[in-house]
UniProtKB/TrEMBL annotation:
This is TraW. It comes from Acetobacter oryzoeni. Keywords: Plasmid. It comes from the Bacteria.
Length: 391
């Protein structure tokens, strides 16, 4: 194309030189017209050639069939750039899909792990469940112990046949004295010549520590000592029984009413003390975790313990146990909610026990009011004259 343009320019210049050289010398006026004509001819020729050159340049730029044209090169470059963009979009799409797939798999595993953690029982929960089972077993055993204690003490307080006071109060006093010297002889008793040696539990039948010092009464005499302390506290000696013609006389029948009222009050008082004693009776085997908790509290681990001991260990474990509190920090939400539900259940259980004990205390209060009002009534009646009643 450049060679063609060059040839066109050279041809035009040659024609112009040839025309000038072939012109004859004329007069000034005629020569000027020839020059003007030549210029017009050259301009016409050059205009056509320049239009051809412009057309050729335009064709060279717009000819899409020519792979070397500017339009073809621009088209190819744009196509390549579009291919690059499509490839980049496809690559980014694959990367995003891979990331989404990996994240979905991670979230699914995380969800499965959470579901597993939410449904699995924690070791602390299993340990607490074992302890609660032991507590309920101890509660059942304590009720059996309560029945056994009341079966023994109730006939004694009523001066039933075969008990020390059946034949008289003096016999009951002698029996109580002999019993004390045989099992609870103190150094003062030895010095007084009442017994020969000090017992293993001196004066245990009159000391509150016998009943309340330990949550679990030992089986080597501590349960009997606690029961004997209750006897010394409530009814050391029962009144003599009303027997034979005493019960059939008019005064005897009235005395029998008073005695039954007395027996009822003493039975209530002894029942409450027997209830406390039964709660401290060793009745259930402790679990390994409960023994570990006793050791952590500075107590000697026991093989068998009472309801009070088992319940105390279960409560104290959630207050001071380092392992339980450490496990609580790592528990998932469901495990923490289970612990809360367990503690609420324990609170309800203890509230029920307190309610039961409150019934006993309310009975004692009602008895005290009744005794006071009865004494006031008898005092007022003694000042009144006997009425005259016409048949």
């Amino acid at each position: 194309m450049a060679k063609q343009i060059t040839r066109t320019f050279l041809l035009a210049a040659g024609v112009c030189v040839l025309t000038t050289s072939l012109q004859p010398k004329q007069a000034y006026g005629l020569g000027e017209a020839a020059v003007v004509y030549a210029i017009h001819a050259l301009q016409s020729f050059m205009g056509k050639r320049m239009d051809k050159v412009g057309e050729n340049i335009t064709n060279s730029l717009n000819d899409m069939s020519d792979p070397h044209s500017v339009s073809s090169m621009i088209r190819d470059a744009a196509t390549q750039q579009a291919n690059y963009a499509k490839g980049q979009v496809a690559a980014q799409s694959r990367i995003a899909d891979a990331q989404n797939t990996a994240m979905a798999a991670f979230l699914r595993r995380q969800q499965e792990t959470g579901i597993r953690d939410e449904h699995m029982m924690s070791p602390e929960f299993c340990s607490g469940l074992d302890s609660q089972q032991a507590t309920m077993a101890a509660a059942k055993a304590s009720r059996s112990a309560l029945g056994a204690i009341t079966t023994i003490v109730e006939p004694r307080g009523e001066a039933a046949k075969g008990t020390p006071s059946y034949y008289g109060r003096a016999q009951g006093v002698d029996a109580n004295t002999v019993f004390h010297l045989r099992r609870y002889c103190s150094q003062e008793d030895v010095d007084a010549g009442l017994c020969s040696s000090v017992s293993r539990l001196p004066n245990a039948d009159q000391r509150a520590s016998t009943l309340f010092m330990s949550d679990t009464l030992s089986s080597d005499g501590a349960v009997d000592a606690a029961n004997d302390y209750s006897t010394s506290l409530i009814q050391p000696v029962a009144p003599a029984a009303i027997r034979g013609e005493q019960a059939s006389s008019t005064m005897g029948r009235e005395q029998m009413i008073q005695r039954r009222s007395y027996n009822a009050r003493m039975s209530l008082a002894r029942f409450i003390l027997a209830f406390i004693t039964a709660l401290e009776t060793p009745s259930v085997s402790l679990t390994a975790d409960q023994k570990k908790e006793m050791q952590a509290e500075g107590l000697q681990p026991l093989d068998r313990a009472s309801w009070l001991q088992a319940m105390s260990l279960e409560v104290n474990r959630r207050v001071s146990s380092v392992s339980w509190n450490a496990s609580l920090q790592a528990m998932p939400t469901a495990s923490v909610l289970r612990e809360i539900a367990t503690e609420l259940a324990q609170s309800n259980y203890l509230a029920m026990q307190n309610y039961r004990l409150g019934l006993y205390q309310a009975s004692v209060g009602a008895t005290g009011i009744a005794q006071t009002e009865e004494a006031h009534m008898q005092h007022a009646s003694n000042k009144m004259p006997s009425p005259t009643i016409n048949p």
